[in-house]
Amino acid sequence: MHDEQDRYTRQRRLREIGDAGQQRLESASAAVAGGAEAVAEVVYLCRAGVGSVTIDALARPREFAHASAFRHPAARRHAAASWRALRTLLELVGRPSGASA
Q1: pLDDT digit string (tens) for the chain, length 101 residues
Q2: Which residues are 29's β-sheet partners?
Q3: Could you give the C-alpha distances from 42 to 55, 86, 94, in angstroms and in order?
Q4: Residue 44: left (phi > 0), alpha (psi -120 to 50), or beta?
């Protein structure tokens, strides 16, 4: 079980995460594709509790389908990093029944 002062208490309360999901995150490793937004993606994953995160400079990042919704390149990169981090978290935790991407 976890301590009430646990850094991830709020995540553990989410139906999508729970205790089991947080344990999966803590024992998981993830590789982030290198690029301008890689640092933001790494920060998000580490703050979510992913056990090990590395940057693969040779990998190509996933295509961000909503890039055209962002006018400024910096906002587009940040949104892409956020989206990729959330997709990775969904894969690591596993989707609850009835959830869609």
Answers
A1: 555 568 889 888 988 888 999 999 999 999 999 887 899 999 999 999 999 999 998 988 888 889 899 999 999 999 999 999 999 999 999 865 445 54
A2: 52
A3: 8, 11, 19
A4: alpha
- Rounded to the nearest 10 degrees, the angle between the axes of helix 73-93 and helix 38-48 is 40
- Total tally of structural domains belonging to the chain: 1
Give a yes or no: residue 99 inside a domain. no
CA distance 40 to 82: 7
What is the token pair recorded at 21? Answer: 């999901």
Neighbours of 34 (CB within 10 A): 15
Q: Provide the whole-model pTM.
A: 0.80
In a domain, 101, yes or no: no
Its domain, for residue 42, covers 9-93
Of the candidates 25, 21, 72, 81, the one whose C-alpha atom is nearest the C-alpha of residue 51 is: 25
Amino acid letter, residue 71: R
